[in-house]
Design a protein that fits this description.
The radius of gyration is 16 Å and the shape is globular. It starts with 13 loop residues before the first strand and ends in a 7-residue tail after the last strand. By secondary structure, the chain is an alpha+beta fold. Strand 7 and strand 8 form a beta hairpin.
Length: 183
């Protein structure tokens, strides 16, 4: 497996029918703070982080690293997508350790929910990833209680590998591959 961090970054902006996925800029800082401070966004992520802490700790240009995309709609930041190194430190099976080295994460502002933007943006990011690293799988974790996230995973073609307990909740773990689903 290849470490995606070795890829040339940033890629050219990725344009979909309605969205642009691009590298982060200073103008995205407030939206990144809002994403992480939002009680709605933090529902299945351990809760929101305190805004004052975020104001102190979020860099001027947030998320400037390989695999971090800002999702833009009509010039406004509505979310982020991360294709980060998978760190399977959670207790449990070797299946999670062996499933893939890259994990998909995403955060969208609540006003962007329910319009298909997450599906459109994540599909574009996965298409880019498949072109850059053909055949490399991508993994995804979400709480089983997060019905929207599980629905998104299914739409994107993630296959459930297992469920397990962590962070006082049942977790869903799945994998995606541009080649063929793993079972």
């Amino acid at each position: 497996m290849t470490d995606h961090r070795a890829l040339a970054w940033p890629p050219a902006p990725i344009k979909t029918e309605r969205l642009v996925l691009r590298e982060s800029e200073a103008r995205d800082r407030e939206a990144v703070i809002e994403l992480n401070a939002s009680p709605e966004v933090g529902t299945y992520l351990g809760g929101p982080r305190p805004r004052a802490e975020l104001e102190r700790t979020v860099p001027e240009v947030p998320g400037r690293r390989p695999g971090f995309f800002v999702v833009e709609l009509d010039g406004a930041t509505i979310g982020t997508i991360q294709l980060d190194p998978h760190a399977p430190e959670l207790p449990g099976s070797n299946r999670r350790r062996e499933a893939g080295e890259t994990e998909l994460g995403y955060l969208f502002l609540p006003e962007a929910w329910g319009r298909g933007y997450a599906t459109e943006a994540c599909a574009a990011a996965l298409d880019w990833f498949a072109g850059a690293l053909p055949g490399e799988p991508v993994v995804l974790y979400t709480q089983t209680a997060n019905v929207r996230s599980k629905r998104l995973a299914a739409k994107l073609g993630f296959t459930e590998l297992e469920r397990f307990e962590a962070y006082d909740a049942e977790q869903w773990f799945g994998v995606w591959s541009s080649v063929a689903p793993l079972a």
